[in-house]
What does this fold into?
Amino acid sequence: MENIALIESFSEFKDDKLIDRVTLMAILEDVFRNALKKKYGEDDNFDIIVNPDKGDLEIWRNRIVVADGEVEDSNREISLTQARKIEPDFEVGEDVSEEVKLVDLGRRAILALRQNLISKIHEHDNTNIYKQFKDLEGEIYTAEVHHIRHRAIILLDDEGNEIVLPKDRQIPSDFFRKGENVRGIIESVELKGNKPTIIMSRTAPGFLEKLFEQEIPEVFDGLITIKKVVRVPGEKAKVAVDSYDDRIDPVGACVGMKGSRIHSIVRELGNENIDVINFTNNEQLFITRALSPAKITSIKMNEEAKTAEVMLKPEEVSKAIGRGGHNIRLAGQLTGYEIDVYREGVEEDVELKEFTDEIEDWVIAEFSKIGLDTAKAVLEQDVNDLVRRTDLEEETIKNVMAVLRSEFEE
It folds into this structure.
């Protein structure tokens, strides 16, 4: 049978691509019907019998016997003389089923048919991969480094699926070699053309949340709820946790003795400093906890404008702001309040933006980046420390301080 030689690879498609028998039969029938339409103009009078397991296929064309010389549609009708060559006892008006050999379609049609089959199988594959990973969005996934590019790392999982870890989704301290396993969350899955693009992230707050679920049994079991996560990837994170069981200390359970439980998470995130905070609906108390390790003297809140003025002792200010301003910025993101820090006992201070006539805007912006928005906040700092924490030259900082001092000397 010449059909077998042409389609002997059908069963291989089934094995290699892990397509179930019913799906493969549907794809094969669709491909062959398209070929028949091109050859005969229509396909609804053809029966296709596919057996992908055995690797054989039969195509039968059904026509009606008409008297010689009365054939109007050669696809649907057959003359009595031609019909009797198939079976000698056919009569006018009877139905004739005749097998169509694949070679009858022509060599070019057969090549196109096979290419169409491969394309349909790949399309089915890609649709399945898309659905599989769409269901995994927001979940932790592990894959191996296959190729390192300037703007992204290309990963492969155990099934050979390609996953992209862009540079901006990597923690700044991340450094991976080919063959290493990488963990992250599946951030997004998109179909570009017929090919799915799978994006992994290690910087998303959701990655930290899922690590808590993986590493801390009480979170996994639902005894502890993660209310919110905010991060500066690789630098600092704040995680608000709560428990509906008064017998459980959510912070203690997450951190563990001497940080034993959270240690593996910190290590995975490139030694990211993680503050675990008890959630509360008392917004004033929540802000106080969010600004930890600073100790707050008092808070003046505007709930409508979502602003909070926090009063601290001078020695607590740098703790509240944190290195690079990360602590106060994350506290604001966690609580939803814009937080301003004021020093206790300081009656007079001037905001830096009041000095725009003498200090350039970009210089003021550099101080704001590290949480210094007032004149006295800058004057309390060490010049060398400011050189290290900002992109400003020592001379520029000294000039700024001279301008600020003159304000108070007057």
In short: The chain has five domains: 2-131, 136-201, 204-279, 283-343, 352-409.
